[in-house]
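Incident log entry.

Two folding requests arrived from the same account within the same minute. Monitoring flagged them as a possible duplicate submission, but the sequences differ. Recording both here for audit purposes.

Request one:
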Amino acid sequence: MNGETPDPNPQMETNIGGLADMLGVTTQSVREWQRTAGFPAGEQVGREKRFSVRVVLRWLCDSWRRATDTRRDSCTQDERKTRLQADKLELEIAEKRGTLVQRDAALRAVERGISESRGILLNIPHAVAALVPQDQRAGVEQRVGGLVDQALRSLSDIRIAEKMEDREDG
């Protein structure tokens, strides 16, 4: 591992509609991106084209970074000031509308979700064991329990607040 958070499902693929839904954009936007140089090619599966979600997200992030770097480098001081004022106004409007989520509230919601997920995961071994013959239940429950414990240990190493602070600093 290189210190990055592991991708939970690196093979996840979807079609144009799925990408649009995940990213909160229209299918037309995704089709416009397809015409952009460097957009991931995808793979034809039957009558539809499937895209690796991970690859598309990486492309979007890289494209956004390039666009941001280009704008930042070519902006005058007045343009930067105007952009910052517009950003501030946009945040104020979002706050008044109630659509701006405060960092602490978001962290609490994520932590609550993680806690609930932990409880669900801890119940898996017992539920799976109930599906196998009686004489195999103990072994299955122990084996699945070990896998769940291993997954929970890996997840416990992820520090959401620290990652958010790293992004803010970097």
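Request two (distinct sequence, not a duplicate):
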Amino acid sequence: MQRVARVRQRQLILVQKYNNSVTHDAGGVEYCQFERFTGNCSDSKVVLVTYAVYGRLRLGRCASTDYGSLGCSTDVTELLDSWCSGHTQCSFDVASLRTVVQPCPTDLTSYLDVSFTCVPGTACELSAISAAHNFAIK
């Protein structure tokens, strides 16, 4: 829990520091189970994940029927922060999250609700791309 608080505090500081130079704010966009999340920033800016929840939060584009399991979700901000923040682009299949976390009954599809911003910076180096998650970062 302390680690999550430190990540959020770092994110808040970065967002506050660079608030006037933000080039993209996804604003809590839903990505359905069989879609692909892609966060892109210009070469002089890097992705900063500010919010990410995986599950069935509410009825909407990705969850049209309740089935009694609305609200089952888990905060994956720290996970996506480790995957994406500090890179000029980040892309992965939402379904790959199911192999890492499963907040809802297995017979229901979950979706990703994520928000990111672009802040000035130099992209982090990446030693390998995770083929297990069909994951690409630059």
